[in-house]
Amino acid sequence: MRRLFVVAALALCLAGCVSGGARYDQIAIQKIRPGVTTEKDLETWFGQPYRHEYLGNGRERITWQYTRVGIGVGIVEQHELFVTMRADQRVESFEERNK
Fold first, then answer.
1. Buried b (16+ CB within 10 A) or exposed e, 11-40
2. Paired residues of 60 in beta bridges
3. What is d(CA 65, CA 97) in angstroms, rounded to the nearest whole number?
4. C-alpha to C-alpha distance for 18 and 72, rounded to whole angstroms
5. Distance between CA atoms of residues 26 and 51, nearest Å
6. What is the number of other CB atoms lying within 10 angstroms of the CB of residue 74?
7. What does residue 31 show for φ and ψ, rounded to 5 degrees?
8. How far apart are CA 22 and CA 3, in angstroms?
9. Position 16 confidence tier, pLDDT thresholds 50, 70, 90
10. Is 50 or 9 the better-scoring residue by pLDDT?
């Protein structure tokens, strides 16, 4: 009986999913306006970013990411938002990718 319990528990663990990053409001992406939206606006709408990359000349790329992986099946869901900021801390451009 104990062996059956261990096997059942192991099977449940292997069938589960693991996620990384934080979900963000995809509808809020419609609020982003190049030349107007600030980094502070973005953090209010999407929370803390996953990554900052400095591009030089005061520009940077900010990334928000959420990934959910099914054990044994790979990526089940992935959302990424890439925002390039100008030196004046306003949005230059943005791109969303969903899988």
1. eeeeeeeeeebeebeeeebeebeeeebebe
2. 54, 85
3. 10
4. 11
5. 18
6. 7
7. -80, -15
8. 37
9. low
10. 50
What are 29's two structure tokens? 């992406």
Handedness of CA 29, 35, 38, 39 (dihedral sign): positive
Q: For residues 28 and 76, give the distance between their C-alpha atoms in angstroms, rounded to a whole number.
A: 22
List, for residues 17-60, the tens digit of each pLDDT value: 665 666 777 788 999 999 999 999 999 999 999 999 999 999 99
Tokens of 72: 């044994």
CA–CA separation, 49 and 85 (whole Å): 13
The candidate with the shortest Cα–Cα distance to 98, out of 38, 17, 16, 23, is 23
CA 5/CA 65 separation, integer angstroms: 37
Length of the chain (residues): 99
Amino acid identity, position 86: R
Residue among 76, 82, 93 at smallest CA distance from 35: 93
Look up residue 16 and give its DSSP letter: -
